[in-house]
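Anyone else keep sequences and C-alpha cells together like this?

Example one:
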Amino acid sequence: MNIRSFMPQFLAATAFAVAMFVGATDASAQQTPGGAVEAHHHLAAMHHAHAMDHLSALHHHAAAHAASNTAVDREVVTEHARAAGEHLDAARRHQQAEEQAMTPAERTAHRANLDTIHAAHAEAARHHQALTAEVARPTPDPHVVAQHSAAMFHAVRRAQDAHQTIGHSIGVHDHGAPPAQPAAAASAAPAAVHH
C-alpha cells in the first residue's frame, strides 16, 4: 500500500477521532470529577450545612430563653441570623450554577427535586426576612426567633435533602451529611413549622 492511497483514510479516521473527542468533551466536561456540577454541588451542600448549623444554634438559644421567659442575647441572635442568611444566599447561588451546568436531560430528569429546592429556598428566605425583622427589634421575642429559626432550618433541610438526591443520582456525592435536626427544634417549634 502506498502512502497516497493510505492518506485519505488516515485523515478521515483522524478527523472522526477528533470529532468524537471534541463531542465527548463538550457533553461530559460538566460531569467529569472536579467539573462545574461537582464543584457547585459541594459548595451548595456546604452552605446548606453551615446555614443549618447557625439555625440550630439560634433555635437552641432562643428556645432556652423562651422556656425561661428571659431576653435573648441580641448580639448572638443577630450574628446567627445574619450568617444563616449569607449561607442561604450562597447555597442558592451555587445551586443555580450547578443547575445551569447540568445537561438538559439531567434538568428534565430532576425537575421535581429542582422545584423542591427552589420552593424550599424561597420559604427559607421568607422566614429569614421575618427572623431578621424580629432580631432587629430592641427586645426580640425568643418565641418568634425560635419559631422562624426552626422553620428556616426545616426549609433548608428540605432543600439539602432534594439536593443530595440529585447528587447521588448523577454520581456526585457529598462529603459528609448535614447536621441533624436539633431535638429542641422538634419540641419547642410550633406544630405549624413541622413538615
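And example two:
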Amino acid sequence: MEPQQRSWVQVMLWRVTQWLTMAPKEPHPASALTDAEHAKRFLLRTLATSSPILTENAWDTIVAEKDTDILAWDVALVVMDANEIHRSEVRRAFFENAELLRYAIAWSRDPEEMKLITNLV
C-alpha cells in the first residue's frame, strides 16, 4: 500500500471507529450493529438506493458475511457521509476488498495503532 493510500485508510479507519463509538447516542439502525441478518438487510436496502455502487463480488461478500464486527463496519461505512472524492473511494475500497477491511479492523483493535492514528488525525 502506498503511503498516501495508507493515510486515507487510516483516516477512514479513525472515522469508522469514532462512529461506532458514538453510534449508541445517535439515531441509527442499532440492531444492525449486533445482528448479522438485520445488518445484511439494512445494507442491501440502503446500498440498493444509494452510493457506493458495488460490484457483484462485493454484494456476494456482504450476503455471505457472518461476522457482526465486519457487518457493523459496513453499516458505519454506509451511514457515514463520504461526499469528498477520496473518502468515497476509500469507502468503496473497503467494500470491494475484504482483505483491506480486515486489515483496518485489525488496526482498530490495536491500541498503539489507534493512538498513532488519532495523533495523525
